[in-house]
Each structure stands twice: as structure tokens, then as C-alpha cells.
Write a structure and sequence with these properties.
The protein has five helices and six strands; from the N terminus they run αβββββααααβ. 47% of the residues lie in helices and 20% in strands. The chain is elongated and about 95 Å long. By secondary structure, it is an alpha+beta fold. The strands form two sheets. Strands 3, 4, 5 and 6 form a four-stranded antiparallel beta sheet that branches. The N and C termini lie far apart (81 Å). Helix 3 packs across helix 5. The protein has two domains: 54 residues; 111 residues, 2-Layer Sandwich (Tetrahydropterin Synthase, Chain A), CATH 3.30.479.30. The relative contact order is 0.13.
Length: 175
């Protein structure tokens, strides 16, 4: 008798579990689909590319043939003081920087290619002002952020967000 009561109770619990699963499938899943549709519409409205998670207006990939690689400071390293980190010591960055210039950019004829050497002092000055905002801890933990900040600052200076595509550190030492 005890076995049949336990069997009936476990059957009843299994039936309740099946009913609750059906409720979830028919009540919750359509709501999730509605929310997903709403998120898609909002993303389209603000022009986000959902598949990659990047802004739709981001610079498209540029072929290597369309790039001119310029070595800042004639390829020599630059020594730049870093912002104080609070440890009482002076820190600095020794770096050799290359800029990848977009030859298809409107500003390339004016500022790029062989003309880059003319603007080398200005480029170094802009780089110095950006690097001076970073502490040694910032540089150690996120060099990519520094490179992006330099690229954005130089593009803003030259007035074309697509002129400098990438900033590379061919050599970097911080102390």
C-alpha cells in the first residue's frame, strides 16, 4: 500500500512539473521573443550593429595597399614622462611609434605620406600630451587604450577621423 501511495505522489508531482513546464513554454517564451524584438528595433533605431557589437559608423576595414606606414621621430624612440602614480617615483615611457595613414583619406594629400615628416614635431607634441595623462599602471594594464587615445587625438588634430587608422608601438619600455 505504501508503494502505491508513493507512486501516486511521484506521478502527481511529475504531472504538476509537466503542466508548469507547459505554462513556461506558452507564457514566458513569447514574452522573451517580444522583448528580443523590441531590443532589435531599438538597436536599429540607434544604428547599432548587433552581430558584432560595434557602431555601424565605425571605420571600415582598409586594405594594406591603402596604408602608408609613417615612423614618428624617424623611427627613433621617444622618452615621455608619465603622470605620477602616487608612489613618489618619476615614471617614463620609452616608445617608438608608427602611424598607419589611410591613403584614401581626404587629408592624406595635405598631411600624409612624405608630408608627414613636415608635421613630425606637431605629431610628437600631440603624442606627448596624450601619454602625459597616463600613469605607469594605466600603460601596463591597457596599452591598447593609449594607442586608441593617440589615434583619436591625432585624427581630431588633423580634422579627419579616417586619416590615421592605427597607432603601433614598434618598441615600448616603461619604468
Amino acid at each position: 500500500m505504501k508503494k502505491s501511495i508513493l507512486t501516486i505522489i511521484s506521478f502527481a508531482l511529475s504531472l504538476v512539473n509537466l503542466i508548469l513546464t507547459a505554462v513556461i513554454v506558452f507564457a514566458v517564451v513569447p514574452e522573451i521573443n517580444n522583448v528580443n524584438s523590441l531590443i532589435t528595433k531599438v538597436a536599429e533605431a540607434i544604428e547599432l550593429d548587433i552581430s558584432t557589437g560595434t557602431d555601424a559608423d565605425a571605420t571600415e576595414a582598409i586594405s594594406p595597399e591603402s596604408l602608408y606606414i609613417y615612423s614618428v621621430n624617424s623611427g627613433e624612440t621617444m622618452t615621455i614622462n608619465l603622470k605620477g602614480s602616487g608612489d613618489g617615483e618619476a615614471h617614463f615611457l620609452i616608445v617608438a611609434i608608427t602611424l598607419s595613414e589611410n591613403t584614401l583619406s581626404e587629408k592624406y594629400e595635405t598631411f600624409g605620406g612624405d608630408n608627414s615628416a613636415t608635421y613630425d614635431a606637431v605629431i610628437r607634441s600631440q603624442i606627448n600630451s596624450v601619454v602625459a595623462k597616463y600613469t605607469i599602471n594605466d600603460v601596463e594594464s591597457d596599452t591598447a587604450a593609449l594607442q586608441t587615445d593617440i589615434k583619436d587625438t591625432l585624427n581630431e588634430y588633423f580634422g579627419d577621423s579616417a586619416f590615421i587608422v592605427d597607432v603601433g608601438f614598434s618598441s615600448i619600455t616603461y619604468q
